[in-house]
Amino acid sequence: MDDHKLSTKIALGLLPDWVNEILLKEKNNLIEEYCMYPDYYYDPHKYSRVQPFLFFLKVYHFIICQGSK
Asked: Distance between CA 61 and CA 52 in Å, rounded?
């Protein structure tokens, strides 16, 4: 089993039962497909599978300068 899939399966197993009930219908997809989306972004053969779900935030970086006293 791929590392991403294994870690996702373990993480889901650690969640409370009530959360797993909510995720029940998507649990297999989370383990087999969705957890791989970050890697699919970099794979030209699989990028089209994740492209509809991508969004990018424009991030501004601020530099805080402390003046001399």
From this structure: 27
- Band (pLDDT 50/70/90 cuts) for residue 53 is confident
Work out the angle at residue 15's Cα, subtended by the Cα atoms of residues 12 and 20, and round it to the nearest 5 degrees.
75
* Closest CA relative to residue 37, chosen from 54, 25, 23: 54
Report the alpha-carbon distance of residue 47 to residue 30 in Å, rounded.
17
Rounded to two decimals, the pTM is: 0.66
Nearest to 37 by CA among 2, 1, 4, 3: 4
Backbone φ and ψ of 44, nearest 5°:
-60, -25
Distance of CA 8 to the CA centre of its chain: 10
Task: Say how far apart CA 37 and CA 52 lie, in whole Å.
Answer: 11
